[in-house]
Design a protein that fits this description.
alpha/beta, 7-stranded mixed beta sheet, 22 helices, binds acetyl coenzyme *A, binds (2S)-2-hydroxybutanedioic acid
């Protein structure tokens, strides 16, 4: 892998660090990336499903997941993990990501991971060929392609430091602060950087100087390298070896900071955990001397570094890099109050999940109400057997006569002089656990029983303990002797068109038991719909979590609501057509049992 990141690289960001992620997206917008560099965020404690970020003046939604495994499964193309977990969690997050696999680079920002754990973690990554940047780092950048989190600072600073497009220097530092400083120096004295990594300040970091420099040696965009080391450790000697053995042939400019240490009597521990010399060879002085002797360009002092960079860069006669056009991140941005992911009315013609209305509305399109439901409710194009099933359900539940709760309410309301919408709504308000609204409950409880291997008897006991009648079982007038032909119709459709009906097969074993106790305890129309919808979604490839979410959000009752609205409106129109007077319930149909209230 000669290049760490490309313009297609996408990351999973562990921790919802909105400021850092926004900086990445501002960068993406500035350099005109086609896809955001963050594909997913792992936010273990958030109940949200996405986080909104600006992309220019627009907003984009980045999905949130509770675990790395879920994020990776949903965004398999994202092969960089930006591990922003705290030092207490960062090790576990990294080890889990290595086990999940599919990551080429893992960046770890936390400082202070116990050194024993850090060594094991770094070795595990190395064994798997995964590049670790950090721990204790701001990360790295491939200018014009991909930037990790806060590298380079604000967008203004990034453009000033020419980090918005690739230059020709490969930069490796330990420190993140000096990384930014050097980017600026390189922009002023040369043409910017092609790739840069701050390897991190801990004593044991994943990828070390030599790993990064060898990759840059192979990266044709890198024409020369700058190495900013520091007092402590012996990693610079590996670079010296590579230069001596001819593994690295591109010019290197290098400096180790910390030369001041010699002015102190005892060993000095600088800000980084690794920045302390344990032997003469680990001092900045010794390393600078050894690097100069190996032919590496070492300035006399840190202050001479800019001039050295200019000198080496100019000696290479690199062709000037054309400045690309950039987007400018707007200064003032407004977040949007509402989000819509199902339809769009901004063009010439409104669309349902991307389909213009005219492409689904007329009979010649071959599309029906089932297709419209699948687009607007599920944002998917369901196959014909499924859209036909949805239509069959809607038609089947459209009405069941005037005596049922909802129709009765709608009729009474219409006769009180109320409008179609008012009368319809009173009808709809009766839909619930006893009437028409047992579909979600049936799906939930039968699915639970089947998922948990409860036999019918155990299921009945389980429901008894919960103290609720089994949703989807029982009917006021329908029974074994007077079967509900709607149920028969739905089952016949499923038998002929569904790839399989495992949950229905299970529900029928439950029905056999309940009807053996009482013959009206049949699998009713609500139950049959709820159970068959689960079978339909399973056959369509939905995950169990997705199906559970449909159930929890009330999606299944919605089929009854849509269908029965047709019938309620029919009853309301019927009342209006007949100009029926206000309804008063016959008093002889009411048992009056009113006692004189006791005085207390
Ligand atoms: N699960 C377990 N036992 C039941 C169930 C059930 N779903 N339904 C009725 N029973 C039992 C009752 O506990 C009662 O037992 P008991 O005689 O030992 O006391 C007996 O059957 C009669 O109960 P009722 O409530 O009088 O039965 P009814 O025939 O009036 O009820 C109803 C019909 C309301 C549909 C009922 O069966 C029920 O609540 N079912 C669950 C909800 C449901 O599925 N509703 C949708 C119906 S279809 C539609 O509305 C489109
Ligand atoms: C309905 O569809 O409304 C019913 O099954 C309820 C009933 O009592 O007929």
């Amino acid at each position: 892998m000669a290049q760490l990141f490309t313009k297609d690289t996408q990351a999973i960001f562990w921790n919802n660090n909105t400021t850092a992620i926004q900086r990445m997206l501002d960068y993406d917008y500035t350099i005109k990336r086609s896809k955001p560099s963050v594909a997913a965020i792992v936010a273990p404690t958030s109940g949200n499903k996405f986080e909104k970020f600006f992309y220019g003046s627009d907003e984009v939604m980045i999905p949130l997941y509770k675990t790395t495994a879920e994020a990776k499964a949903a965004q398999p193309q994202a092969d960089v993990l930006l591990n922003f977990a705290s030092f207490r969690t960062a090790y576990d997050v990294t080890m889990e990501a290595l086990q999940i696999g599919g990551f080429s680079t893992i960046m770890i920002t936390a400082e202070g991971i116990p050194e024993r754990l850090a060594r094991g973690m770094n070795q595990a990554a190395r064994d798997l060929g995964v590049t670790v940047i950090g721990p204790a780092t701001v990360g790295g950048i491939a200018p014009g392609a991909f930037k990790i989190a806060n590298v380079g600072g604000t967008i203004e600073n990034i453009v000033n430091s020419k980090l918005h497009r690739a230059g020709s220097c490969g930069l490796v530092t330990r420190s993140g602060g000096l990384f930014n400083e050097l980017s600026n120096i390189i922009a002023i004295n040369a043409d910017g950087i092609a790739e840069g990594v701050a390897i991190g300040g801990d004593r044991f970091v994943g990828s070390v100087f030599i790993d990064n420099l060898l990759r840059m040696q192979d990266n044709p965009e890198v024409k020369y390298m700058i190495l900013l080391g520091e007092v402590g450790g012996t990693e610079e000697y590996k670079v010296i070896e590579a230069v001596k053995s001819g593994k690295i042939t591109k010019p290197i400019i290098a400096w180790c900071i910390g030369t001041i240490a010699k002015y102190y009597d005892s060993g000095v521990q600088f800000g980084h955990a690794g920045a302390s010399a344990n032997a003469e060879a680990e001092t900045a002085e010794a390393k600078n001397k050894a690097m100069a002797e190996a032919g590496i360009h070492v300035p006399a002092t840190f202050n001479d570094l800019p001039a050295k960079i200019k000198e080496v860069y100019e000696s290479l006669n690199i062709a000037p890099i054309p400045e690309p056009e950039m987007n400018v991140v707007p200064k003032v941005r407004r977040t949007k109050q509402f989000i819509c992911t199902i339809s769009d009315d901004r063009g010439d013609e409104a669309t349902y999940a991307g389909f213009p209305i005219s492409s689904v509305a007329t009979p010649d399109t071959g599309k029906g109400i089932g297709d419209v439901v699948s687009l607007l409710w599920f944002k998917k194009q369901y196959p014909k057997w499924a859209t036909d099933f949805i239509e069959t359900v809607i038609k089947t539940v459209a009405d069941h006569g005037p005596a049922v709760s909802g129709a009765h309410n709608a009729k009474v309301t219409a006769r009180a002089g109320k409008s179609v919408v008012e009368s319809l709504v009173t009808g709809l308000l009766t839909i619930g656990p006893r009437f028409g609204g047992a579909i979600d409950g049936a799906a939930e409880h039968f699915k639970y029983a089947d998922d948990n291997g409860l036999d019918p008897k155990a299921f009945l006991n389980h429901m008894k303990k919960l103290g609720i009648p089994i949703p989807g079982i029982g009917h006021r007038i329908k029974s074994l002797k007077n079967p509900d032909l709607r149920v028969k119709g739905l089952m016949e459709y499923a038998a002929a068109h569904f790839p399989a009906t495992p949950l229905l097969d299970y529900a029928r074993t439950v029905e056999a038991l309940t009807t053996s106790k009482k013959e009206n305890l049949i699998l009713n129309v609500d139950g049959t719909i709820g159970i068959l919808m689960v079978d339909m979604w399973r056959a369509l490839g939905y995950s169990e979590e997705e199906i559970n979410e449909f159930i929890a959000s009330g999606t299944l009752n919605a089929f009854f609501i849509v269908g029965r609205s047709i019938g309620f409106i029919g009853h309301v129109l019927d009342e209006k057509r007949l100009a029926m007077p206000m309804y008063r319930h016959p008093m002889d149909d009411i048992l009056y049992d009113v006692q004189v209230a006791e005085k207390i």
